[in-house]
Write a structure and sequence with these properties.
With 611 residues, the chain is mainly beta. 4% of the residues lie in helices and 47% in strands. This is PKD/REJ-like domain-containing protein.
Length: 611
């Protein structure tokens, strides 16, 4: 025992003193007394002097974890051994095996070594983190474990998509002889499958003509796993197809021990893509020459377009335009050829004489050897001094794969915008229509009657909450000018707007009235039953059929000081703690004992017992 006197000023100040703990492992009691002429204060501190961990060695069985062939073997066991210096005091170890399983909580190391075995259920790429610690130090190391297998029943199929979004329909490429025909305006998506879905790939290569690509090592981002198989999607860009002729596509998928290869002959062909009318709402007179303009991505040349005039369901085959007369004659031998395509800056133009009065649809049928496309343009011809109404929708979503997102529980409205330019006063008819749409391709499934909606003929259409099922919808706003003694029925136009109805979510509540906290005495039970107070905002699902999980954290002064973890970013729910752990309980839970709480109703009711 020793005494140290330190004088202090009248101001608050911090004092420190360094002590040498010596070379012996022991527990020390340090007593600190502060005093003046009036009072004194004593603090006792227990100091544990231990040897720290400076290094440890890991050995595994098998020794090389980077290449392990566990073909058709399950489980896949790995042996681990830890070795420490002989002077380390009371060491423990903690292991995260990297497969998302619950952490093996701290185990004590006896005689400065530990041996343990872990069985992986599937092949894969795992990062094992081993931490060795005692009260005064901690060291972590990690190992990479790759358990590989051959790719069982490996097979690939080349596909393409008409629309550029994730959930669009995939279409198989047409095969003629030993070659696939690929529309070079669209990406090729090669889908490769194998059954042992958990076997990781080290990389894959893609070669097509002069193009060569090697993926990043162990990049699994393009792999989709189902219950039965793994799917690797490899994209060959249309930009590459446009610059290549007939070539073999070569794909190799490999890991350290195995490789599978897919080969196919690809013939790039030209297709017709994205021909869109340029809107022109001007009104023509009978006999006028009217210009028609269209933007396009590709005309699929050599190709031809048949121009048809449709008025009151009477079709008049006018003429053809195309790459050349020979091409058009081969497709439409009895229709007069007018001219070659007139294009400039990706815009196609032609003209036609107005021969009728009324609303006339000009239907243009584009065609080549591998694709077809129909484009319709509506034109008004009239003797009246009027223009067609200009129609739009506020915040319009014109693409079915980029719809407006609405929660089912929300009431919403769609506002149509109409501008009329006519020197005469006529009635305007406004009408809304509703269609159910297939999300993968934008096709109409069926029309839904909204005649009972009192706003269906107003500029603003109001949709009540919970009135539409989940899914994609197309709203069409149509405006028509009319009079009994006029041909103004031709003055009509419509515009569409896509809306997707999605779930609103579940409101989870443990207490009545939306309360978020309660107070209970130590001698009172606490019963938490979310199935009583929780509810589905859409009134679509029964809350009693849902599965709830309970988590617990200790909070002091508004700060979470302890949360049970599976790994660095995964919490442990109370039901898992109760039924999966029998040791070290106090280190991973808010409760002192497994008997402090129990569950009923398949784990949906938590009863915390009184102390």
């Amino acid at each position: 025992m020793f005494l140290i006197y330190i004088s202090a000023s009248i101001y608050s100040t911090g004092d420190s003193e360094e002590f040498n703990s010596g070379n012996y492992i022991r527990n020390l009691n340090l007593t600190v007394t502060a005093s003046d002429i009036y009072t004194s204060k004593t603090i006792n501190v227990e100091i544990s002097v231990q040897n720290p961990i400076t290094e440890f060695i890991i050995q595994t069985n098998p020794t090389n974890l980077l290449i392990i062939n566990y073909q058709n073997q399950s489980p896949k066991s790995i042996g681990f051994s830890i070795f420490l210096d002989s002077n380390v005091t009371e060491p423990f170890y903690l292991v995260d095996y990297g497969d998302g399983s619950l952490i093996n909580f701290a185990e004590k190391i006896f005689n400065f070594s530990a041996n343990f075995t872990y069985a992986y259920l599937t092949s894969g790429y795992y990062k094992v983190n081993i931490t060795v610690f005692n009260k005064v130090s901690s060291i972590s190391k990690y190992l990479i474990v790759r358990l590989v297998e051959d790719f069982v029943d490996f097979e690939c199929f080349p596909t393409w998509r008409l629309f550029p979004f994730d959930f669009a329909d995939d279409f198989n490429l047409t095969k003629i002889g030993n070659a696939y025909l690929a529309k070079k305006e669209y990406d090729i998506r090669i889908k490769c499958y194998w059954l042992n879905k958990d076997s990781p790939i080290e990389n894959y290569t893609l070669q097509y003509g002069s193009y060569f690509y090697v993926s990043e090592k162990w990049d699994q981002s393009n792999i989709v796993k189902t219950d039965e198989y793994a799917e690797l999607i490899i994209t060959l860009s249309s930009d590459i197809l446009k610059n290549e002729n007939v070539n073999e596509i070569f794909i190799a998928v490999s890991n350290e021990l195995f490789q599978k290869v897919y080969k196919a002959i690809i013939t790039p062909v030209s297709s017709i893509k994205d021909i869109i009318p340029i809107t022109d709402l001007s009104v023509s007179k009978r006999g006028d020459i009217r210009n028609f303009n269209y933007t396009f991505d590709s005309l699929g040349e050599p190709s031809c377009a048949l121009v048809v005039e449709d008025s009151n369901n009477f079709n008049n085959l006018l003429f053809t335009i195309g790459t050349n007369e020979e091409t058009c004659t081969s497709y439409y031998p009895y229709i007069p050829f007018k001219e070659k395509y007139q294009t400039q800056n990706k815009t196609l133009s032609f003209s036609a004489q107005m021969t009728r009065i009324g609303l006339i649809n000009y239907e243009i049928y584009f065609k080549n050897e591998y694709s077809t496309l129909t484009v319709i343009t509506s034109v008004t011809a009239s003797t009246e001094d009027c223009n067609r109404p200009r129609v739009d929708i506020e915040n319009r979503s014109s693409l079915f794969y980029q719809p407006r997102i609405i929660q089912r529980s929300k009431r919403f409205s769609i506002i149509g915008i109409t501008k009329v330019n006519c020197k005469k006063s006529f009635k305007n008819l406004r009408k809304w229509s509703l269609f159910s749409i297939r999300e993968s391709n934008g096709r109409i499934i069926r029309e839904i009657s909204i005649t009972s909606n009192p706003t269906s003929s107003f500029t603003e259409l109001v949709i009540p909450s919970n009135s539409l099922s989940y899914g994609l919808y197309k709203f069409v706003y149509k405006v028509q000018m009319f009079d009994t003694n006029s041909d103004l029925a031709a003055f009509q136009i419509d515009v569409d707007h896509y809306v997707k109805i999605v779930p609103s979510g579940i409101v989870v509540q443990l207490f009545p009235g939306g309360m978020t906290n309660i107070r209970r005495g130590l001698d009172q039970n606490i019963i938490l039953d979310p199935t009583i107070y929780s509810y589905d905002l859409d009134s679509y699902f029964s809350v009693k059929n849902l599965k709830f999980k309970f988590y617990c954290s200790i909070i002091e002064d508004g700060i979470i000081i302890k949360s049970p973890l599976i790994s660095l970013n995964k919490f442990i729910d109370l039901e898992s703690i109760k039924f999966n752990y029998t040791r070290n309980f106090s280190s991973i839970s808010c409760f002192d004992s497994l008997d402090s709480y129990f569950f009923r109703n398949n784990g949906n009711l938590l009863n915390i017992t009184a102390r």
